[in-house]
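Problem 12. The chain below contains 262 residues. Write out its predicted structure in token notation.
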Amino acid sequence: MKAACSPTASDPAAPLPSKSKRGFLKELLGVGAAATVIPIVPVQAAMGDQPPRRPGIPGKRYGMLVDLRKCIGCQACTVSCSVENQPPIGQFRTTVLQYEIDKDDGSAPAMVSLPRLCNHCDNPPCVPVCPVQATFQREDGIVLVDNERCVACGYCVQACPYDARFINKETQTADKCTFCEHRLEAGLLPACVESCVGGARVIGDLLDENSEINRRMAEHKDDIKVLKPGMNTSPRVFYIGLPDEFVDEVDGQASVRLVADL
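Solution.
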């Protein structure tokens, strides 16, 4: 292939020339060269039309298990992720939000710490809505963003039902948890897993029946839950000890007070 060739639909991995990003946005949005604000419009994710996955770590399908019984809300995972991946100050790839659950008996509310991150879904709604194929999924299930392609249109941010994406203020591209794929490829654990003082986070190969994550999930199979199962995204972040009130109703901000029978 000649170095000067432009990327085509048959070559999704080819980088976009840097000068084409602005031109693409003008054509996409129909705005003048002076426009700097991208309008927010509803995005419907065509999840049934997922593009082919790109190569990853052969023979693996990664997932994460979060045991809420062991999470103490210390934020070590949040801090270590920020140190490892260097997102802008005030933006985070993973968070541990604190929620209050009101009790019907009038006693003091119960406090719940809920770690949140990209769910690396098997049917990710963020992938098919990307107009430049910057968001993609690998064969090992990890969902990533190609910063050379991303035009910061925000469609993937809107499509994610888990509020797990944001537009990086410094790079002006979509950003999110990557399961620290660079560490996995080097045989290391993600920063959040390695730093968890309570051992609440476990990552592993879901295709390996002897992996620790599969062993723990088998032990607690009746207690395994995922967030927003009705969205049919097949998330691969699983929870032990997740209250039923959180399964479908929790959004991105920890400003809600959930009522439960505790």
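Discussion. The longest strand covers residues 95-103. Students who got a different answer should revisit the alignment rule from Section 12.3.
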